[in-house]
Amino acid sequence: MIHFILRRLILLVFVLFGVTVLIFGILMTFSPERRAAAYITTPQQAKDIHKMVERYGLNDPFYIQYGRWVKEIAQGNLGWSLVASSTV
Q1: 80 with 39: CB under 8 angstroms?
Q2: Alpha carbon distances (Å) from 77 to 16, 44, 71, 81, 88
Q3: How many CB atoms lie within 10 A of CB 65?
Q4: What's the pTM?
Q5: Where are the domains of the chain?
Q6: pLDDT per residue over 52-72, tens digit each?
Q7: Beta bridge partners of 81
Q8: With 70 as the cut, is the pLDDT of residue 82 above it?
Q9: By the 8 A CB rule, do 44 and 67 touch?
Q10: Quick one: residue 12, left, alpha or beta (phi over 0 = left, psi -120 to 50 = alpha)?
């Protein structure tokens, strides 16, 4: 029984890694400008889209962005809700 539980826990690590890579990969299909544009609410912000891309590190290599994203998810920071205008 212990062997079964240990095997499942080890498998869980690989499954969680695969799921996070899949979700992150889907998010990365959008360009940095497109991802930053999701948070633009005023015309003034539209002019500063390149500053937003730099501010949020959207031009960083994917492995740095992935590490940052996993760290935030592990800490319970799931992002910002555009509908509720608050943290998720």
Answers
A1: yes
A2: 17, 27, 9, 11, 7
A3: 19
A4: 0.71
A5: 2-87
A6: 888 888 999 999 999 998 898
A7: 86
A8: no
A9: no
A10: alpha
